[in-house]
Amino acid sequence: MAQISVEHLTFAYDGGDPLFEDLCLSLDTRWRLGLTGRNGRGKTTLLRLLAGRLPDGGAVRGRPACVLFPFSVPDPSLPAGQLLRAFAPDAPEWRCACEADRLGLRGETLARPFAALSGGEQVKCMLAALFVQEEGYCLIDEPTDHLDAEGRACVSRYLKEKDGFLLVSHDRDFLDGCVDHMLALGREEVTLCRGNYSTWEREKLRRDEAERARSEGLRREIARLDQAARRAADWAGKAEAEKHARNSGLRPDRGYLGHKAAKLMKHAKTVQARREEAAAEKRQLLREAQTAEELRFQPLRWEKASPLVRAEDLTLYYDGRPVCRADFCLQAGRRLALTGPNGCGKSTLLKAVCGVPVERTGTLATAPGLVVSAVPQDPAFLKGELTQLARREGADVTLFFTFLRKLGLERTIFSLDAARLSTGQKKKVLLALSLARPAHLYVWDEPLNYVDVLSRRQIEVLVQTADTAMLVVEHDRAFLRNIGAEILALK
Hints:
Elements: E1 3-11, E2 20-28, E3 32-37, H1 43-50, E4 60-61, E5 66-69, H2 80-87, H3 93-102, H4 107-111, H5 119-132, E6 137-141, H6 149-160, E7 165-168, H7 172-178, E8 181-185, E9 190-194, H8 197-245, H9 254-284, E10 309-318, E11 321-330, E12 335-339, H10 346-353, E13 360-366, E14 372-375, H11 386-392, H12 397-406, H13 423-435, E15 441-445, H14 453-465, E16 469-473, H15 477-482, E17 486-489
Parallel strand pairs: 3-7, 3-8, 5-6, 6-7, 12-16, 12-17, 14-15, 15-16
Antiparallel strand pairs: 1-2, 1-4, 8-9, 10-11, 10-13
């Protein structure tokens, strides 16, 4: 057991605002610790600071040897089994085989070169390499984004059996399945609690509700104090005026009237001071409340009775070999989620629906006049200034930037080259571009990879309330449940 102590850490990238300012933390390396927070809050940066990859000015103490995921593989041509042994040369072969087996990596898969494995298999291989080493604190940065639903469940079960890691993920079900503590990076505060993601979320909502109630009470108190201060000031003014008005009288009691006016004025200042204290307390409340503006958009309405997309006896091919078979009929207003293991043709089917030439047999028909808006899986192609990017993609520029702001992106990034954005920010750009292009059908390929939980909830509510059709590939089971998606399992 080791305690990692972070004492008064302040860190900023060159020319930027501080990501962390006077951060203090104490972490137990035995915890299965989940890390959450909105995109851009510094989750990956914190992992790199803990791993010693960034200068911390001596603020991180008690740092054990850390292993950071994902990592570069020195020789991707090596078979996966040999790669595991290369990372832990002193570990017995049975241990390597055991770690791989727990992640579903066996026989033929371990004999293949690492470069020839699917994205999900590579993730599992690297995780096995992390834990086959008995020494080292594992820092795991978003491992789920190349895993299908079955792979996520497998990795979650695997991690639940381990002690001692720090895990960044935005998949709520995944976190619930494997962590016993949660660390949340907010706008100004960092909170730590015992339990899984759902435990943290319930506690966060309880605190937010208590702060809202206190804020409303303070709002009423401030209004009452404002009224009391004005009334006391008016009385003091009247008493002072009465003192001078009686100067012409026979025997005015100017001392009494002056004392009365001074007392009333002192009372007014006391009330005003209490009002300022209440206002200062109110300003400190709800600074970390999980609030997000509601997203709204206007999809195009499909007035015809015909289906938007129809597939009958459809087989899609890749490099001459069949990758999937499908039969479905997508009507207006329905949401259909494609599921299945990595490599079963989900993305290929989405591309075919979007009009990309794909070798196929059978029928795949899209309705005449159908307008489709897509979110591709990989945002790496994004580059250029955002305004020009929106115009190139035919998006409503004003609506595009409105979506970005509501999804938590700061205005300061709007003038940056999109290539400089984080992967999570790029995914939000793709989502905003799609939503800013009115369409009959929204075709989204893993739209939530790297996107924070609060933004996922915004998208959920948007899809729930919009009468629009959607064809989606997404492995976040909570998201699919909440949008009421029908499931089409591809084989």
